[in-house]
Design a protein that fits this description.
Number of helices: 9
Distance between the termini: 25 Å
CATH topology: TIM Barrel
Radius of gyration: 17 Å
Structural class: alpha/beta
CATH class: Alpha Beta
Number of domains: 1
Oligomer: single chain
Largest sheet: 8 strands, parallel
Strand order of the largest sheet: 1-2-3-4-5-6-7-8
Strand content: 15-25%
Order of helices and strands: EHEHEHEHEHEHEHEHH
Shape: globular
Number of strands: 8
CATH superfamily: Metal-dependent hydrolases
Length: about 250
């Protein structure tokens, strides 16, 4: 079973003591591709460094809602053309933690959407308690390739995203008892979903409460397979093909 991890932060300090071993464990578990997600200039650069070191890795470039006050368009323009950068992200809006005010978040989100269109790159969206504003800003520019990372909306919002031919990505949250993702998963076309861990966060059951790792994607796969009543290998392979098409095909 080959697995594509579409959203991880293996450059974070959480892995400083054992990063190499974690990556070895991932590869042993069948994780053949890992997209290391940038949240600012520093993490974007670290993602590039990981991609230079490990052939399994690619990286993204962007400023997360928590770092938009640091936004440096000139620096981002220097990083984006790197051969390992395969998307702009994670970018978007977060009205739950409100790291920065709504106006600044929206301004920088729009600036980065325009950069993605200019450089013809997919977009990885961070959307927390900001569904309609995220959707409306994206709709304003109509980018072709968009994924809502760690999708947290309901069926109605999922349908709006899917109607735009965009993608949804599922994390370990699907394994939680209070998850409402089952109905969403049942309506996603087979070519419009990814799987991810968002490591080091959102660790799936049975490891919830511990640091996450892409090697735990098997539990996300198994839960989706259980919901759809199809073999886990089918989920793994379909999500791999979807992610490959989205991130690695021009």
């Amino acid at each position: 079973m080959r697995i594509f991890e579409t959203h991880a932060h293996l450059d974070f300090d959480d892995y400083n003591k054992d990063r190499e071993q974690v990556i070895k464990n991932c590869i042993k578990a069948g994780v053949e591709r890992i997209i290391n997600i940038g949240i600012d200039a520093k993490t974007t650069q670290k993602g590039i460094e990981l991609s230079n070191k490990y052939p399994q890795f690619k990286a993204t470039a962007g400023y997360h809602p928590s770092t938009v006050h640091e936004f440096d368009e000139a620096l981002l323009r220097k990083l984006i053309p790197n051969k390992h950068i395969v998307a702009i992200g994670e970018i978007g809006l977060d009205y739950y933690r409100m790291y920065n005010n709504k106006e600044l978040q929206q301004q920088i989100f729009e600036a980065q959407v325009k950069l993605a269109i200019e450089f013809n790159l997919p977009i990885v969206i961070h959307d927390r308690d900001a569904h309609e504003d995220c959707y409306n800003i994206l709709k304003k520019y109509s980018p072709k390739k968009v994924v809502f990372h760690c999708f947290s909306g309901d069926v109605t919002f999922a349908e709006k995203i899917l109607n735009e031919d965009w993608y949804l990505s599922i994390t370990g949250v699907v394994t939680y008892k209070n998850s409402n993702l089952s109905d969403v998963i049942k309506i996603i076309p087979k070519d419009k979903f990814f799987i991810e861990t968002d490591s080091p966060y959102l660790t799936p059951i049975p490891y919830r409460g511990k640091r996450n790792s892409p090697e735990y994607l098997i539990y996300v796969i198994q839960k989706i397979a259980e919901i759809l009543r199809i073999p886990p290998k089918v989920i793994a392979e379909q999500s791999f093909k979807n992610a490959e098409q989205f991130f690695l095909k021009p």
